[in-house]
Amino acid sequence: MTTRIEDRFAKLKAEGRPALVNFIMGGDPDHETCLQIMRDLPGAGADIIELGMPFSDPMADGPSIQKAGIRALKAGASLQKTLDIVKGFRAGDDETPVILMGYFNPIYIYGVARFVAAALEAGVDGLIVVDLPPEMDDELCLPALEAGLNFIRLATPTTDDKRLPAVLKNTSGFVYYVSITGITGAAAPDAGKVAKAVERIKRHTDLPVCVGFGVRTAEQAVEIGKGADGVVVGSAIVSAIENSLEEGRAGSRTVEAALSVVRDLSSGLRASKA
Amino acid sequence: MNQALNPNSFRAGPDEEGRFGKFGGRFVAETLMPLVLDLQEQWTWAKSDPGFKRELDALNATYTGRPSPLYFAERLTEKLGGAKIYFKRDELNHTGSHKINNCLGQILLARKMGKTRIIAETGAGQHGVATATVCARFGLPCVVYMGATDVERQAPNVFRMKLLGAEVVPVTAGHGTLKDAMNEAMRDWVTNVEETYYLIGTAAGMHPYPEMVRDFQSVIGKEAREQMLAAEGRLPDLLVAAVGGGSNAIGLFHPFLDDKDVAIVGVEAGGKGLDGDEHCASLTAGSPGVLHGNRTYLLQNEDGQIKEGHSISAGLDYPGIGPEHSWLKDTGRVEYVPIMDTEALDAFQLLTRTEGIIPALEPAHALAEVVKRAPKMGKDKIIIMNLCGRGDKDVHTAAKHLGVEI
């Protein structure tokens, strides 16, 4: 049996375009609005959805995603509620891959075995956990893989050829290449350097390689997408949500604000392949 | 391989993965991992290199003023009427606290690694001042991240850092305290990873920091052991030190961990009491979790979100604790107890009037525990307390709490 992630990349390959991977924060700006946005993301052009697990201390995230996490937590978000959002999404969509992204502590406190089971049951396809490098595979990666969840690893500009095999060893689903040394939503990546890095990673693996951190516009996405199997955009969507808020709460334009960023990215990527 | 909970030696940790039992480890983003491994390699080299040791020993002696004295507090001993009380006087160090011991060690390492820019986090500003000091001494640019709330509370230290040539960046992200400053320092590090060295101020964070900081601070315990043998011809019965992140405490404790007859107590900030959220007693009232690169006891809620701590002493105001302390708690080798803000403030005044020493509010917590224990111990018993910082920086805070306007 193939996984949702494999099916999705096979379909995209046939269509000849890179995946648009979109990040939103679980429970941002509130539970219901987040679920609404997530349900509408595939229609707006998202091929794969990354749903953030809010954490009080997001060490690898820039201001946009930090604030999204704080908003979500203030609105009552928790790991359980993030899983509930996935469950709610799956009720209407059984094809779009859903990746949970975040930090280890909430999972550790939830209980690794319990979390893996609950994630599978909710319809989660993969995990990205920023603070679990290969050296920490016993913690979550191996139990998750064994249970049938994909564990998507980050490779970065500092991951040299010597280290790359260790990073790729227990990676499944796809490889997430972090285009800059830095935090999410910060500096714009250099498309030329990224293309070379993706080429380098592809010499070591047959997995699809998606590129993220710092990609905000359709033009950037098109450039990056030329050499990669997917482009990840998060901060731009999360910022659009923030800008749409009315007195800190979801406003009448919040859902549309998020979706319109995704539509622009999607049409840009599709047009460039046509 | 994890260490057993009842090891033959309490001084053998951490293992190769940086674990003390189940605590410690390297929970860091991939971008930092190659650098963390490089640091580990350099540290492994440095700790057995005679040249490195010579250079550090010389700086400790002539720049910091080591060894710091072991002082018999005669009047306090008389007043409490029990065990003999000795202070390890690391408050006499250059920059006024034990922080310099670690900063000198790490900056030598940073230079060996060819790093050209130093970053640090600070809460009360003591580590920030010590870092800015060694950066000035070695001519390296220095950026100190400090919670915006702390920048306001600790204005004199902010000015000191600036005088020393450091850039102080107020952190408004999160709640603007020490843990947010540490998050922001890690964000800087991950962005400027090639040229930047992150000079962590306490025995926490990812491997090898807890081990490395402990070893640099262990000069405290090594000296104290020798000085006690010279003064009394025997080892002490009890060691007491304050625990925030835990570097001064582990520095005193570590050389004594295998001396079974030496009891050891770490003192946490009990703040306004352990019933509410206004304390920093991670070991007494927290639970194991993963933050800032290591597994350790943390103040957190049932969803694994980290809480803000509170203490009258900004230097103890951290919701985590070095991983080795977590392990020493679980093994039972060290006992950890909370001391409330008010008790620390009483001890602060007591020492000032009895011995003519104004302690920092951090060791005032340790002293409050000494005040409780010494009278219950026989006059033939001996206590060493780490007097890890001087109180000049806390005079304004103390005045405020005592209702005095200055």
Automatic annotation (TrEMBL), chain A:
InterPro entries: Aldolase_TIM, RibuloseP-bd_barrel, Trp_synthase_alpha_AS, Trp_synthase_suA. The active site is at 50 (proton acceptor), 61 (proton acceptor). Gene3D superfamilies: Aldolase class I. The keyword Amino-acid biosynthesis applies. GO terms for molecular function: tryptophan synthase activity. It catalyses: (1S,2R)-1-C-(indol-3-yl)glycerol 3-phosphate + L-serine = D-glyceraldehyde 3-phosphate + L-tryptophan + H2O. Coiled coil: none annotated. The keyword Thylakoid does not apply. Pathway: Amino-acid biosynthesis; L-tryptophan biosynthesis; L-tryptophan from chorismate: step 5/5. Keywords: Amino-acid biosynthesis, Aromatic amino acid biosynthesis, Lyase, Tryptophan biosynthesis. SUPFAM superfamilies: Ribulose-phoshate binding barrel. Pfam families: Trp_syntA. One of its GO terms (cellular component) is cytosol. Its EC number is 4.2.1.20. Tetramer of two alpha and two beta chains. Belongs to the TrpA family. NCBIfam families: trpA. The alpha subunit is responsible for the aldol cleavage of indoleglycerol phosphate to indole and glyceraldehyde 3-phosphate. This is Tryptophan synthase alpha chain. It comes from Fulvimarina endophytica. The lineage of its organism: Bacteria, Pseudomonadati, Pseudomonadota, Alphaproteobacteria, Hyphomicrobiales. The gene is trpA.
TrEMBL record, chain B:
Gene3D superfamilies: 3.40.50.1100. GO terms for cellular component: cytoplasm. GO terms for molecular function: tryptophan synthase activity. The keyword Amino-acid biosynthesis applies. It catalyses: (1S,2R)-1-C-(indol-3-yl)glycerol 3-phosphate + L-serine = D-glyceraldehyde 3-phosphate + L-tryptophan + H2O. PROSITE patterns: TRP_SYNTHASE_BETA. This is Tryptophan synthase beta chain. It comes from Fulvimarina endophytica.
